[in-house]
Structure formats: C-alpha cells, structure tokens
Design a protein that fits this description.
The protein is an alpha+beta fold. Helix content is 31%, strand content 25%. The strands form 4 sheets. It has a 5-stranded antiparallel β-sheet, sandwiched between helices. A 4-stranded mixed β-sheet has the order 5-4-3-12. The protein is globular and about 75 Å long.
Length: 445
C-alpha cells in the first residue's frame, strides 16, 4: 500500500507539471494574440534555469536581428578573454635616442586631461614624438551600419585613437530674434558650419553632413530659442586627426619643442617605459551590459580578439575568439550570423533558442552583470519585477528585443529571449508585448 501511494503521488506530480506547463503556454499565446502583432514576427524562447528544458517557444529557431541584446553574446566571451584584471592602458616610452613613443591601448575612457598627464612627463626637447596604434585595426565602423547614423552620438567611430569618447561638443547660442545663431566648438578641429539657424521662439533644427563630399562641413538648419543656448555632442569624423590635434595642443601648452609630425612606429625592445595611464575593465562591463554602449562593445571585442590571436585586434580575430568560446562550451553557432559586436547592424542574425542556450552556459558570470528593473536601459521599465529580472534590451528600427533571467512568484527561475521584428507596430507596442509576456511568466511560471 505504501509503494502504491508513492507511485500515485508521483503520477499526481507529473500531471500537475503538465497542466502547469500547458497553462503558461496558453497564457502567453493569449497575450500574443491580444497584442495584434503577427506571430510570425515574434521569436521567443523560455527555458528552465536549472534543467534547461523548454518551457515555451515560438519561432525560436528562426534567425532574426537581435539588436543590442547581441552584446550579451559577443562581449561576454570578450570580457572573459581579457580577464578581470585587464586594464585599458595608454603608455609613454622613450629610447636612447631621446625618441618618445605613445603606445595606444584603444582606451574608451581616455580623455584629453589623461593625455595631458602623459605629456607632462616628456622633456622640453625630444628628438621626436611618435605613435604606436597597432593594438587594433583602423576599421572605424561596423559592417552594415547605416550611413545616416554618422551623427548619432550613440554610434561614434572607434579605433586605437579613442579619446574624449570620440565625441565633440558644439555650442549653439541665440543672438537677437530673427538673426543667425552663433555656433562654436571649445576645441580646435577643422570643422566648418553652414549656419542656417535663426534665433526664434523655439529650438528646432537639423544637422547634416555629407561624408562623400565634405566630411568636415556641417549644414545646420532651423531655429533656436532666443533666451537659451543648446549644447550637443556629435561623433568625430576623423578620430586619428582629432587625437593628434589634442596631442599637439598639449605639447604647445607645455612649451615642448616638437615638429607636430607623429610617425607611425611600433614598440620594440629599444624602448623603456616612462609612465602609463590606465582604466579598469569593470566600468566597461557596466557601460556595455547596463547602458548598452556601442563604442565600448566594439572596442572590447577587438581587443579580446587581439589577445586571443596574439596580434592586432580585428573583428575577424574577435569572431575567431567568439567561435572558439562557443566550441569550448558546446554551443552550436550554425544558425547565427555575427557581423559586429554591438548589434547595431541589421545584418546580424540570432535565434532565440541560441540566446537562451548561451545564457544557460554563462549564467554565473553574466546574470549579476545585467541590470534589473529600474537600472540602466530598464530604468523606466518593469518596476514590478525589480530584483526578479536581470536583462539586456535591444532596439533598432522596427525591432525590439529583451533577453535575460527571470524568477517567478513561485520562485521558479527561467532564461528567456524575446525578439520582435515588425514594421507595422510602434516601438511602444512591441515593448508592451515584451512586458506582458514577462509579467505572465512572473505570475504564472
């Protein structure tokens, strides 16, 4: 009788699990149906955190653009490859001929004040000042990035010459109502303005740059409010030129005699380290995972590729590093395509099933790094899930995505990936569906 009771209890438990699973699936399906978004445009994978078993899936093996959720996939192996103790470093060397060499580390946090600290360590009359920028290649944008995004401050170019976040500040000041505004920059850079901004009762203007004709000319049209200046930041068109101009300014400020011609040279054994300036990698993790910084994601991916291959950091070396990581962790990459590290390009293709498989493999490392509700890109989203969700969001034109970890009210834990590629609905509608699906997992899971 006791054995029969045990068997009966096991059967009841199994039946409960089947009903519970069916109930969650039904609730999610109802939520999707009520959203009005075509099911064919939605890709979802939800898996049990502990067993890895599928809890819910919809088009989970269909490749779709993941937007910035891809940063989870590309930068996690990159951060692991670089290591917890890695530092972005910019170094100053000299040799016996009194020749000085700046060895750049593509430090995304380097600014002009940092560079000044290095310049101060130089003598008044160096034989020459040169630059080693071989840490990563000179391909400054990702494949498939949109040409009309070149003025987007969220998408600056990136290279070994990273400085001041590769952004330049422009100040637009009103004059007398009906007259042109004043436009200026605080730093020296060969940038010209076609100023068609008029002082008026509101601030409303556009900025355009034709890179194929005049990359250092900004055409500015519109109005600015008569009693308030506007400060904007735009991506630097030529980071290498900008870096060298900042270096020249500092050399002049410190009365150092220098030709201003900085040759490309590589570090060798004839040089001795004079000083360095560095920034720790932990801040980069926060800025990538929580704030979705594109420039840092791309830079870190290339740096990790360089370390992996013991050569110059390139996207190709980063991809080789990534593929080796997936092979080592038994993650199948046959159904995905990666063309950049940040997820900016729509040429990237990912499946929800791959995303959740990846999350399961790196859960101990990744989950604590992702923001919960009220933090980072989730600052104003899903506040009712605070502490119970850790996720990365992604947004591109027509695309919204969210991927991460969630714990339900019943303390069941899941990994999930939701990607929506639909041109007929607004970004708000897509994000609303994501939230309702996650609310369903939280309350019913």
């Amino acid at each position: 009788m006791k054995r029969l009771s045990i068997v009966f209890g096991i059967i009841i438990t199994m039946m409960s699990s089947v009903v519970y699973g069916a109930g969650l699936k039904s609730e999610i399906n109802t939520t999707i149906s009520q959203s009005g978004i075509n099911r064919g445009a939605i890709s979802i994978s939800v898996k049990d955190f502990h067993s890895g078993k599928i809890v819910y899936e919809l088009n989970s093996d269909t490749p779709i653009s993941p937007a910035s959720t891809q940063k989870i996939i590309t930068t996690t192996p990159a951060f692991m490859t670089l290591g917890e103790d890695y530092q972005f470093s910019t170094k100053l060397y000299k040799n016996s001929n009194n020749e000085y060499l700046f060895v750049l580390g593509a430090d995304p946090y380097l600014n002009t004040k940092d560079l000044d600290k290095l310049v101060k360590c130089m003598p008044k009359e160096p034989a020459s000042v040169n630059i080693d920028a071989s840490v990563i290649d000179d391909n400054e944008w990702g494949e498939g990035w949109q040409w009309d995004d070149d003025l987007n401050p969220l998408m600056p170019k990136f290279s070994a010459y990273n400085i001041d976040k590769n952004l330049m500040e422009i100040i637009i000041s009103p004059s007398v109502k009906g007259y042109p505004a004043e436009i200026k920059t605080e730093v020296k850079y060969p940038l010209s303005f076609v100023n068609n901004i008029i002082t008026d009762k509101e601030t409303k203007y556009t900025i355009k740059r034709q890179n194929h004709i005049s990359p250092d000319v900004l055409v500015m049209n519109g109005t600015i409010k008569y009693n308030k200046s506007d400060i904007i930041k735009i991506p630097i068109n030529n980071p290498k030129k900008y870096f060298k101009l900042r270096l020249s300014d500092l050399i002049i400020d410190h009365n150092i005699s220098c030709s201003g011609i900085y040759q490309d040279k590589k570090l060798n054994n004839n040089y001795t380290l004079i000083t360095l300036l560095s920034h720790e990698i932990n801040q980069a993790k926060k800025d990538v995972y929580r704030n979705s910084n594109n420039m840092i994601a791309e830079t870190v991916f290339k740096l990790a590729g360089g370390k992996f291959s013991s050569s110059t950091g390139t996207f190709e070396n980063g991809l080789e590093m990534f593929n080796n990581f997936c092979k080592t962790h038994n993650i199948d990459t046959s159904n995905i395509r990666i063309v950049d590290a940040s997820g900016v390009s729509k040429n990237n293709l990912m499946t929800a099933d791959f995303m959740t498989d990846f999350l399961l493999k790196v859960q101990g490392y990744l989950e604590p790094e992702l923001p919960t509700a009220g933090e980072g890109t989730l600052t104003n989203r899903m506040l009712y899930l605070k502490g119970n969700i850790h996720a990365k969001t992604g947004t591109l034109s027509n695309i919204s995505a969210i991927t991460g970890y969630i714990t339900s009210q019943k303390e069941q834990k899941y990994v999930f990936s939701i990607m929506i590629n639909d041109s007929k609905t607004s970004p708000a509608d897509k994000k609303m569906l994501e939230e309702y699906i996650l609310r369903t997992i939280y309350t019913k899971g």
